[in-house]
Amino acid sequence: MKLICNQRVFSACINTVQKAVSSKTTLPILKGILIATYGQQLKLVGTDLEIGIENYIDAEILSPGAVVLSSRILGDIIRKLPDADIEIEVDDNNTTTIRCENSEFTLVGQPAIEFPELSRVEEEEGYRLPQDLFKNMIKQTVFATAVDETRPILTGVLMELQEESINMVALDGYRLALRQANTRNSHNNKAVIPSKTLNEINRILLEEENTDVEIFFTDRHVLFNMNKIRVISRLLEGDFINYKQIIPKEYKVRAKVNTKKLLNSMERASLLAKEGKNNLVKFSIRDEIMNITSNAEIGKVFESVSIELEGEDIDIGFNSKYFLEALKIIDSEEIYLEFTTSVSPCIVKPVDHSNYTYLILPVRLVG
């Protein structure tokens, strides 16, 4: 194999596929990146057998071939080379020579035939989403997935695709995040996508990109096609919780509050809350004021935020971390906080649209 490509383009390509390479694997071949010619393009592939990323770049192919090279070493080398053309040459023993201006590296490669093939996903009946919308939907849900593996299905995000809409839902037993959007789909589908996959896609997607993401499913895998980047991931198996039963249909108390002001107050209150045992902040809602307090052994904090109140007064406590994570990803100027009782879930919603719903369980107040 022999080819010429641009250093900057090649480095960016390596950086993309490295997101699927695991440093903890016991299989040496999985610590590498597959580099293969594909017509007049160069294909790079990284995988940890759970997720695989393919990236295609333009290159001058002088002779076809393929090789597997150490992801870490290759990435470090290419990153340090000058922004110029790189020549890559691989002999029959997989010995790889990389030349760029006054630099020359020789690496011991592995045979491409030993690299695992990514699962095949037929690109027939698929779905399309604008990249900026998909990125926003990931950002507003994936943070609420479970971290521990006791209930594996909750470590992923449920994606529901219907004829007129798409829903993405994440929950971990303490909070729930639901993001909805209007789309036109040819058929219905639903699947649970691992949070790791969506986090990597979120890093790949460009907010200013105008193109769509194409999504294709099989029973066990999903393919995300983003221009010259393809991400193939396994799906999580099992039944997702019926989240619609969890979300309250009514409320007795509703407070309208400025998102930024509440976020700032919560961030200050959490400075002491996280010194306590359960990260507790207490909301005391009276008339047009919401007082936020937190007590810890090292001291206490008092914050006051103006609100518009419907309903009666209420005292309720929350884990400040869970509340802050929601406030940080809501991009509306004002939000509603909806309560039923001091031991029932709180619903957080934007005032200006109904596309986002966040539910958080309260912490029981003592005394």
Automatic annotation (TrEMBL):
GO biological process, one term: DNA strand elongation involved in DNA replication
Taxonomic superkingdom: Bacteria
UniProt keyword annotations, A-Z: Cytoplasm, DNA replication, DNA-binding, DNA-directed DNA polymerase, Nucleotidyltransferase, Transferase
Residue ranges constituting the DNA polymerase III beta sliding clamp N-terminal domain according to the UniProt record: 1-118
UniProt cross-references to Pfam families, sorted A to Z: DNA_pol3_beta, DNA_pol3_beta_2, DNA_pol3_beta_3
Family listed: Belongs to the beta sliding clamp family.
Subunit structure: Forms a ring-shaped head-to-tail homodimer around DNA.
Function: Confers DNA tethering and processivity to DNA polymerases and other proteins. Acts as a clamp, forming a ring around DNA (a reaction catalyzed by the clamp-loading complex) which diffuses in an ATP-independent manner freely and bidirectionally along dsDNA. Initially characterized for its ability to contact the catalytic subunit of DNA polymerase III (Pol III), a complex, multichain enzyme responsible for most of the replicative synthesis in bacteria; Pol III exhibits 3'-5' exonuclease proofreading activity.
Protein name per its UniProtKB record: Beta sliding clamp
